[in-house]
């Protein structure tokens, strides 16, 4: 959300720090807001009742001045922590010493590739611990505008690296574990921090051929809305009890998201039961202003703020609310009830964070600098990178033979440091580039940067060939850097940029072992490298964070074994000519080859879920308990379940055997369902469960249990309803199926969840 428009917010935010109200001796001491025996709703209501109208309106923007006469401090609602505490208006790193850095994890796209929910929960717990420590030091607020949980629909999207990938089930499972880690469980007595699921909804375009996110109208079918664009948000709201949502810049079917009562009220608050008094919606930064222009949805600024507030946007990241709600009030476009509702939600959220409670009664107010960037956190940042890094090609060159002593490290990512953090990052304690890691492993390292990422011509780069010719093996680290002006900018091509492919080809002609590190957030078409037998290995390294170089080099050297899986499809370069970015539909048509592994009708270069190991695995899936099930009986057995889609179906045991004799390795079990059931066209297959086993020893086995629900088998109809259909079902274990099981559902199709109609 950092944009030219939002610079105003940044400027306004200067010197606004968190500080707690004095409930012992301050003016609020005897108010119910300070009474720990009252409910959050009672406490927040009592507080807001003390505000004048002008004080209320003044506190509707992200940089809230508080109410000085009541001893209510100023509060900055805007903190970022996409993969560690990140520079943002509310997060203030010190220049040096204590609080001058925090743990910097890989970007979500690489953590998504780990397919390890427990890892995500641990990472989120560290991030919230560090956030609390910064807050206690008056260097951060308690509300974090993370995660970005829009599915990565189109490979051109400039912000896809901020997400865990393209699959809705994967996003649901990931975000559940992330939110519970950030907030400290489902309904803790005190929230660790408040997380914010963004950008609701159907936001995945920055600026493509003049279609700009601030004014883009995403035309989305109810089927795609329910099945693809909002499933992660449903998990945030209904299942993980997230504290906040952010409405997006774009419109959905003609109505800007932040003025969209269908999205914010009918679906989010009513259908998903997001009704707690402390749950609030912020706008993306200046998205309220964008309703006026460039959406041109409301005729006046007063009507604009009224539309947003009345629809359920409680907080404005920006200044339109404080500037124009007074006019809207005078014109009777809003009323005090709605204004109070918004403020009560926000301050009830601060109540749940312990903001008004004595420090000594709370679990997180003692955290300090000793809890930031701990050895445990640093190890976790390294582990997250190792787990996500994905091996795409290997002819046996990796792991490197111990005979290799001299390495040439070449390319625009070979000595990458800050670059490894991608975007939305803070100050890391250290940044280990591949070059530094190779030196630490005692290789003799020869370095030459070679071409830049986008160097267009074919200069000779003699220094690079000089070091390459002296080395036992060559590591070329390049690819893309989608975060260079990523936000507010999409890509037009998905091939290896500039002169890099030609340069790699020339390097390969030296006939030395050559390993290509394809870095950056999205996928680019590797088909120029795959058939070249002199390109011995390809590794996708994403944005691996503070220990990224160490993780990459440990995998290359054989100190760690790769087991990441692509969380996105690697499409061929023609894809960008086959469908405009603005076409939101997932299913194939005459003008759309289909989107994601579920619907793409072409042949991917590497498919979703692809990833090699240093060993071979065989994996078997246990048989279902029956060959056939009756839909009505399955549903009847769920009587009393709060949500039918979450009602258990069957649990399957997966037995994973490492059949190799040399390398222990993790293994990710991916379970898909395919078959003829539900509306046509049928998807290729759909991910329904996954789990990561750790350290399967050579010639040994481990098992895991994959749990399916009725929702795993259901599909969406034209109205967006979730329906269990009779038909044929086949379970496929792994992308090139290691094991399959089939069964039949009989009886009548039954709706598990009715989707609200607009
Ligand atoms: C927090 O920091 C701000 C800005 O430096 C300062 O004005 C305020 O007094 C600090 N509050 C506390 C409680 O230290
Ligand atoms: C709160 O109430 C106590 C007891 O009645 C009184 O002594 C104190 O002055 C009051 N404090 C404030 C801020 O009104
Ligand atoms: C509200 O904000 C305006 C603009 O910053 C300021 O002039 C005014 O004094 C504030 N009102 C109150 C009651 O704090
Ligand atoms: C709203 O109306 C009141 C009463 O007429 C006036 O004092 C105030 O300035 C108006 N506020 C705005 C923002 O126009
Ligand atoms: C306040 O405004 C909302 C939204 O327009 C409306 O639904 C509600 O009835 C109004 N309440 C009162 C008390 O006027
Ligand atoms: C914070 O650090 C202190 C001192 O090392 C330690 O005792 C405590 O367990 C840590 N708390 C957390 C939540 O890590
Ligand atoms: C690698 O990057 C680091 C950090 O930017 C820099 O200090 C170092 O000089 C670079 N190494 C080489 C060989 O360029
Ligand atoms: C590299 O060499 C140094 C000095 O001989 C030694 O202390 C260190 O343990 C070696 N590191 C590795 C990873 O072998
Ligand atoms: C995996 O199995 C294949 C086929 O048997 C074999 O060629 C290959 O060497 C094995 N790879 C490893 C890493 O064990
Ligand atoms: C909806 O949420 C409320 C409050 O969290 C809860 O009491 C209720 O059980 C939920 N409804 C369902 C159907 O789970
Ligand atoms: C898993 O498969 C291996 C290899 O077939 C077999 O030896 C082992 O007994 C199986 N383990 C379980 C728990 O079924
Ligand atoms: C499946 O459910 C069982 C029993 O609740 C649980 O132990 C197991 O961890 C679940 N499997 C996964 C992959 O979450």
Gyration radius (Cα, Å) is 26 Å
Helix content: 25-40%
Mind describing the biggest β-sheet?
Answer: 6 strands, mixed
CATH architecture name of one domain:
3-Layer(aba) Sandwich
Discrete helix count: 22
In total, how many beta strands? 27
Q: Bound small molecules, which ones?
A: 2-acetamido-2-deoxy-beta-D-glucopyranose
Cα end-to-end separation: 28 Å
Name of the CATH homologous superfamily of one domain: Glycoside hydrolase family 3 C-terminal domain
Q: Which term fits the overall shape?
A: globular
**In terms of structural class, how would the helical and strand content be classed?**
alpha/beta
Structural account:
With 758 residues, the chain is of the alpha/beta class. Among the domains are: 375-566, Glycoside hydrolase family 3 C-terminal domain (Rossmann fold, 3-Layer(aba) Sandwich); 615-753, Immunoglobulin-like (Sandwich), CATH 2.60.40.10. A hairpin with a 2-residue loop joins strand 8 (251-252) and strand 9. It is globular, with a radius of gyration of 26 Å. The two termini are 28 Å apart. The relative contact order is 0.12. The protein binds 2-acetamido-2-deoxy-beta-D-glucopyranose (12 copies). Residues 614-616, 660 line the site of one 2-acetamido-2-deoxy-beta-D-glucopyranose.
């Amino acid at each position: 959300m950092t944009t030219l428009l939002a610079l105003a917010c940044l400027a306004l935010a200067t010197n606004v720090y968190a500080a707690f109200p004095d409930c012992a001796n301050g003016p609020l001491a005897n108010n119910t807001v300070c009474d720990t025996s009252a409910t959050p709703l009672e406490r927040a209501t009592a507080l807001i009742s003390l505000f004048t109208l002008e004080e209320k309106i003044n506190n509707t923007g992200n940089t809230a001045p508080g109410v000085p006469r009541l001893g209510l401090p100023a509060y900055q609602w805007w903190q970022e922590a996409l993969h560690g505490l990140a520079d943002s208006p509310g997060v203030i790193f010190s220049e040096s010493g204590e609080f001058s850095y925090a743990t910097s994890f890989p970007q979500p796209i690489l953590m998504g590739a780990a397919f390890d929910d427990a890892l995500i929960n641990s990472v989120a717990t560290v991030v919230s611990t560090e956030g609390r420590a910064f807050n206690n030091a008056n260097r951060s607020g308690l509300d974090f505008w993370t995660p970005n949980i829009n599915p990565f629909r189109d490979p051109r999207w400039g912000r896809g690296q901020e997400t865990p990938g393209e699959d809705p089930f994967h996003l649901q499972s990931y975000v559940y574990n992330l939110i519970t880690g950030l907030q400290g469980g489902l309904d803790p007595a005190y929230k660790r921090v408040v997380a914010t699921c963004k950008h609701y909804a159907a936001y995945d375009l920055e600026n493509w051929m003049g279609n700009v996110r601030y004014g883009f109208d995403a035309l989305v079918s109810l089927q795609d809305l329910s099945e693809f664009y909002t499933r992660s948000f449903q998990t945030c709201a209904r299942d993980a009890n997230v504290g906040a949502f952010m409405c997006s810049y774009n419109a959905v079917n003609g109505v800007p998201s932040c003025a969209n009562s269908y999205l914010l009220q009918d679906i989010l608050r009513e259908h998903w039961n997001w009704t707690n008094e402390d749950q609030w919606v912020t706008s993306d930064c200046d998205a309220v202003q964008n309703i006026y222009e460039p959406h041109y949805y409301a005729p006046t600024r007063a009507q604009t703020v009224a539309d947003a507030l009345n629809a359920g946007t409680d907080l404005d990241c920006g200044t339109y609310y404080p500037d124009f709600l007074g006019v809207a009030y005078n014109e009777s476009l809003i009323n005090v009830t709605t204004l109070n509702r918004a403020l009560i939600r926000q301050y009830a959220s601060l109540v749940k964070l312990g903001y008004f409670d004595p420090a000594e009664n709370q679990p997180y107010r003692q955290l300090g600098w000793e809890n930031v960037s701990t050895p445990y956190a640093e190890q976790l940042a390294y582990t997250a990178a190792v787990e996500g890094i994905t091996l795409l090609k290997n002819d046996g060159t990796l792991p490197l033979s111990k005979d290799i002593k001299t390495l040439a490290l070449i390319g625009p990512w070979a000595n990458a440091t800050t670059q490894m953090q991608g975007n939305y990052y803070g100050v890391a304690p250290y940044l280990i580039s591949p070059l530094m890691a190779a030196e630490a492993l005692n290789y003799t390292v020869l370095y030459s940067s070679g071409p830049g990422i986008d160097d267009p011509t074919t200069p000779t780069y003699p220094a690079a060939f000089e070091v390459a010719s002296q080395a036992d093996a060559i590591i070329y680290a390049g690819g893309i850097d989608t975060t260079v002006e990523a936000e507010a900018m999409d890509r037009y091509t998905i091939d290896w940029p500039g002169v890099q492919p030609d340069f790699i080809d020339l390097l390969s002609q030296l006939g030395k072992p050559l390993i290509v590190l394809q870095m950056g957030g999205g996928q680019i078409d590797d088909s120029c490298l795959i058939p070249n037998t002199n390109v011995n290995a390809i590794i996708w390294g994403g944005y691996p964070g503070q220990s990224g170089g160490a993780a990459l080099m440990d995998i290359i050297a054989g100190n760690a074994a790769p087991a990441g899986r692509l969380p996105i499809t690697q499409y061929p370069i023609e894809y960008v000519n086959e469908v405009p970015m603005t076409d939101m539909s997932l299913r194939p048509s005459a003008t759309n080859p289909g989107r994601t592994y579920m619907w793409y009708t072409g042949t991917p270069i590497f498919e979703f879920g692809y990833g090699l190991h240093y060993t071979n695995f065989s994996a078997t899936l246990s048989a279902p308990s029956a060959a056939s099930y009756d839909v009505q009986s399955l549903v009847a057995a769920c009587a009393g379940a709060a949500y039918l889609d979450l009602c258990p179906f069957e649990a399957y045991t997966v037995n994973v055997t490492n059949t190799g004799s040399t390398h222990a390795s993790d293994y990710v079990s991916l379970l898909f369902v395919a078959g003829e059931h539900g509306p046509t066209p049928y998807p290729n297959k759909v991910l329904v469960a996954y789990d990561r086993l750790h350290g399967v020893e050579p010639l040994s086995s481990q098992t895991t249990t994959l749990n399916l629900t009725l929702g795993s088998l259901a599909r969406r109809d034209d109205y967006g309803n979730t329906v269990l259909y009779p038909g044929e079902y086949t379970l496929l274990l792994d992308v090139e199926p290691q094991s399959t099981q089939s069964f039949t559902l009989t009886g009548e199709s039954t709706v598990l969840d009715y989707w609200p109609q607009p």
